[in-house]
Amino acid sequence: MHIAFLTPEYPHPNLSRSGGLGTSIKNLAKGLVEQKAKVTVFVVGQTEDLDVFDEGTRVISIAKKKHLAFNWYLERKRYQQIIQTYIEAEHIQLIEAPDWTGLSAFMKFSVPLIIRLNGSDAYFCHLDGRKQKKKNFFLERKALKDADTIVSVSDFTGQLTKKLFKLKKSITTIHNGINVEDFKPLNLEINHHQILYFGTIIRKKGVLELAQSFNFVVEQIPNASLVLIGKDAVDVFEKQSTWTLFYNLLSEKAQAKVQHLEEVSYKDIKRYIAKAQVVVLPSFAEAFPMTWLETLAMEKPLVSSNVGWANELMINGVTGYTVNPKNHAMYAKKIVELVNDVPKCTKFGKAGRLHVIEKFSTPIITKQNMAFYKKCMNQ
Fold it and tell me: How confident is the model at residue 17 (pLDDT cuts 50, 70, 90)?
């Protein structure tokens, strides 16, 4: 079996910055390679052409090219021609693309094309309550309608996407997976009373709600601290730094207890997770977040949001707590409860890792994807 992925991002030192989408593709690719499948990843829109192997996966970077007119169309057709050449030469049997901004719109290949729903621009605009660009909606709808098959990383994402684009196709759900050996508990001393958030500093991740919840926390636990790791983003509504908006929402007491680290290496992120007592990820807009899986796999109690996909990943009261981030007092109450109860943190942490191992570990998710790919090729 030879599977290819078409993506705008992939975590590799010679490529542009990658997020959760790239990480989920890399995790799946590694799992497929371990099952003796051949995997090629085409990473488009890069600064240079590159052809390297990454832990058994062939990664082909395609540099972007500027066209005088209709750049969005002509670039897609150029990518199609380049990839089709590899399909024929390397006997690729199937290609998978993400839904984001309709990357595969107007592309036609000689093999089945699958779109995996990790959250389209329309999906996130809907969850954020903001207007989407018409061109993005057009391209995403075109890509989805032309795809041979659609798979989603959560039931919630699949059903909402189906509704937004008025799709009649059936959508299979296969959750994101994680290598539980890459993310496992580290034997490091825990910084008691330390709370950790990691991810982009952006409204849709619930950071502005977190600021107000943390004000409640420091009133009850004066020596509590909050570490935020992630790049700042310009707020879509206020048109200014989200970090500035976050900081201005903090009380004077809370401001003295907050630390922001804009960039931390992938390796060091694990150390920060391991040393935190509680992880908080109050996001309003996700599909099936890798950060949540990483947290649970490392045996950390998680206070998350309670939106849509959350019930497919978290077990409220077992792996942590799912709370509406807008309910600042309740969100703070759950954080305080865990910070004050070390045995409960340990209990939730162990339950979280066991849950990930049983439901979302790489071998389980890879087998589901292999069966799905075989079915697509047979059809």
Answer: confident
Q: What one-character-per-residue DSSP string does 323-361 give?
A: --TT-HHHHHHHHHHHHT-HHHHHHHHHHHHHHHHHHTB
For residue 320, give the nearest of 358, 348, 347, 278 by alpha carbon. Answer: 348
Segment 57-86 shows an average pLDDT of 96
Reply yes or no on whether the pLDDT at 106 is more than 90. Answer: yes
User: C-alpha dihedral over 65, 70, 76, 81, to 10 degrees?
Assistant: -80
Neighbours of 275 (CB within 10 A): 17
Residue 240 phi, psi (nearest 5)? -145, 175
pLDDT (0 to 100) of residue 265: 84
pLDDT of residue 189: 96
CA-angle at 241, arms to 238 and 242, nearest 5°: 80
As a whole number of angstroms, the distance between CA 105 and CA 54 comes to: 28
Residues 6+ apart with CB under 8 A from 187: none
- Res 325: pLDDT: 98
Could you report the per-residue pLDDT of 265-324, keeping only the tens digit for each? 878 999 999 999 999 999 999 999 999 999 999 999 999 999 999 999 999 999 999 999
Q: Could you tell me the two tokens for 140?
A: 């995403």
Element (H, E) at 372: helix 362-378
Angle (nearest 5°) at CA 178 between 242 and 23: 50
Can you tell me the distance from the alpha carbon of 253 to that of 315, in angstroms, rounded to the nearest whole number? 33
Q: How far is CA 90 from CA 1, 9, 40, 74, 349, in A?
A: 11, 22, 9, 24, 44
